[in-house]
Each structure stands twice: as C-alpha cells, then as structure tokens.
Write a structure and sequence with these properties.
Strand content: under 5%
Largest sheet: none
Order of helices and strands: HHH
Helix content: 55-70%
Length: 74
Amino acid sequence: MRRQGIAVDLWLIAKVLGFLAVAGALAALGGTPAWRGLALVLFTGLCFSFNAPHPRDLFALAATLLPRGRGGHG
C-alpha cells in the first residue's frame, strides 16, 4: 500500500480490530438480535469516539464514492 502512496497507520488498524473483537464477542455471546444491535452500536461508538477512522477520511471516502452532480440533468 505504501508503494501506491496510501498511508498506513498500524495503530489505527489495531484499534479498529480491537473494537471489532469486543463487539464481535458481545454479538456472539449475546446471540439475540438485540445484543447484535448493541454490538453494532458499541463498535460504531467506539470507532467515532477514538477517531478511527478520522472524520476527514470519511468525507474523502464519501466524496470518492458518491456521484458528482453534473450540469444538464433534471
């Protein structure tokens, strides 16, 4: 990835994987849809609380994925 110019932050990856492990364990041990929903909320909350990913990265991803407005349509 670095050869392609993509910055890799190993600490950020480790944090996200840790959050995923905690949420995955909660979802697996709880077993019900309510526990799975709680695990999803917990994972999302932890990621945003610790800026993983950083909001500017999310905006850059959204700008890349969302279609751009073009003149002449509608």
